[in-house]
Amino acid sequence: MKKSQPYLSLPTISTPTMKHMKLPKNVEILTFVTTSDGEKREYDAEDHHLSESIELFDVEEVSYMLLFVNGMLQPSTHYTVAQGKLVFLTDDVPEKNVPIILQMVKVR
Prior knowledge:
0% helix; elongated; four-stranded antiparallel sheet; three-stranded antiparallel sheet; 34% strand
């Protein structure tokens, strides 16, 4: 019995494609890091664990806002950020010692 050779098909490109890129806009990324105590529903700038100070911006002041609880991205319906506070809107709160990371992205 004759063994068949694998067939390898590579695409051919007739003309090179050109892409025009724009320079990126000025982007500022702010990260708020804290740990849950298992009881609190609200967190503010005083709960921030990193050495530099940080301001929690309202949702309207940033382009994107991402909240990670224990490394899992949370839907925006589970929290709100207003008047310098991160507030969980869920029935339960994160378990004790779970990391909470809020990334705020400003595109100017």
